[in-house]
């Protein structure tokens, strides 16, 4: 099942493309079937328009969503909607650093002994097609194509063996980074949290369809040039280990986004570095999930 949050074409002019949480009254949740979206907010299904609220409904809501394509719920052509981030306003965005062995090597570092975590503020999250802004504060803006997963339910102290039971599904994140802001602070959070620097989407693919996060090819292109080409098998810590560690420290909540690290080929790994510039287009593809593509523009001066 492929779960989306969308705005209908006829309502797109009223939605804020860079800050979709300001347009929550226009959100709809849906299931993608071929080139159509089954509207889960239709009275025939009656599920919430907010993905987080849908996930709170647990197995009951997910079962109704899975059954919806066989029913009489309204369908909309994909070309007539704008996809938002599948979770437009996640409670938390938790991000893994230094998790691909080859990426650690390209930066000239030693593999970490423990998992390295930082936060991206949830206000950085945008959807497919929304422009990534180069802020006036710095031109050192980089891309990081990543596999991400979405938490299904409230949980604490989840052992690795049970981790998949608390994952609603998998998606793609571009962990856009302002490198000088990132490197000046040991927590990295400031340089990882600029507005528009968390493209997410295009949808959540449930585990039963994806078949698990192992052995997935992950590629990133900038202007059609392949920059990153890796596999999730290169992860130092897998998704189950992430769930176990994170839930040891804090409660995970429905709709939390966990992004899992990036393979080699980031702009900072080149000599000289290859930062993003206005006019660029970044395309991230994860096998079994799909494509997340965003243009790059100059941000506002003030």
Descriptive account of the structure:
This protein starts with a strand and ends with a strand. The strands form three sheets. Strands 1, 2, 3, 4, 5, 6, 7, 8, 11, 12, 14 and 17 form a twelve-stranded mixed beta sheet that branches. The chain has a five-stranded mixed beta sheet with strand order 9-19-18-15-16, with no helix packed on it. It has two domains: 2-83, no CATH class; 93-298, Alpha-Beta Complex (Fumarylacetoacetate hydrolase, domain 2), CATH 3.90.850.10. Helix content is 15%, strand content 31%. It has 302 residues and is of the alpha+beta class. It has helices at 51-56, 58-67, 101-106, 179-183, 189-192, 207-210, 239-249; strands spanning 2-8, 28-33, 36-39, 75-77, 81-83, 93-97, 116-119, 125-126, 132-134, 141-142, 145-151, 167-174, 177-178, 198-205, 217-222, 225-231, 257-259, 281-286, 290-298.
The radius of gyration computed from the alpha-carbon positions, rounded to a whole number of angstroms, is: 18 Å
Main beta sheet strand tally, sense and closure: 12 strands, mixed
Class of secondary structure makeup: alpha+beta
- Tell me the CATH architecture of the largest domain: Alpha-Beta Complex
CATH topology-level name of the largest domain: Fumarylacetoacetate hydrolase, domain 2
- Global mean pLDDT: 95
Distance between the termini: 42 Å
CATH superfamily of the largest domain: Fumarylacetoacetase-like, C-terminal domain
Low-confidence stretches: none
Strand content: 25-35%
- Percent of residues in helices: 10-25%
Query: How many structurally independent domains?
Result: 2
Order of helices and strands: EEEHHEEEHEEEEEEEHHEHEEHEEE
Q: How many helix segments?
A: 7
């Amino acid at each position: 099942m492929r779960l989306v949050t969308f705005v209908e074409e006829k309502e797109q002019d009223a939605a804020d493309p860079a800050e979709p949480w300001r347009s929550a009254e226009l959100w709809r949740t849906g299931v993608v079937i071929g080139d159509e979206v089954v509207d889960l907010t239709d009275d025939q299904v009656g599920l919430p328009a907010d993905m987080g609220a849908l996930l709170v409904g647990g197995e009951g809501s997910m079962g109704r969503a899975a059954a919806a394509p066989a029913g009489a719920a309204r369908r909309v052509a994909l070309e007539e909607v704008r996809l938002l981030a599948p979770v437009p306003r996640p409670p938390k965005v938790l991000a893994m650093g230094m998790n691909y062995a080859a990426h650690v090597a390209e930066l000239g570092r030693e593999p970490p002994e423990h998992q390295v975590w930082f936060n991206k503020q949830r206000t950085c999250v945008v959807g497919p097609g929304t422009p990534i802004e180069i802020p006036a504060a710095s031109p050192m803006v980089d891309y990081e194509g990543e596999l991400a997963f979405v938490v299904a339910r409230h949980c604490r102290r989840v052992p690795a063996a049970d981790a998949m039971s608390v994952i609603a599904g998998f998606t793609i994140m571009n962990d856009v980074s302002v490198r000088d802001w990132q490197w000046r602070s040991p927590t990295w959070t400031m340089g990882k949290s600029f507005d528009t620097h968390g493209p997410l989407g295009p949808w959540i693919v449930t585990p039963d369809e994806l078949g698990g996060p192992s052995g997935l090819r992950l590629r990133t292109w900038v202007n059609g040039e392949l920059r990153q080409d890796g596999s999730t098998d290169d992860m130092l810590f897998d998704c189950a280990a992430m769930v176990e560690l994170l839930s040891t420290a804090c409660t995970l909540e429905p709709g939390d986004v966990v992004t899992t690290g990036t393979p080699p080929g980031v702009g900072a790994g080149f000599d000289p570095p290859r930062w993003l510039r206005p006019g660029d287009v970044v395309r991230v593809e994860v096998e079994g999930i799909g494509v997340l593509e965003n243009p790059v523009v100059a941000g506002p001066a003030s």
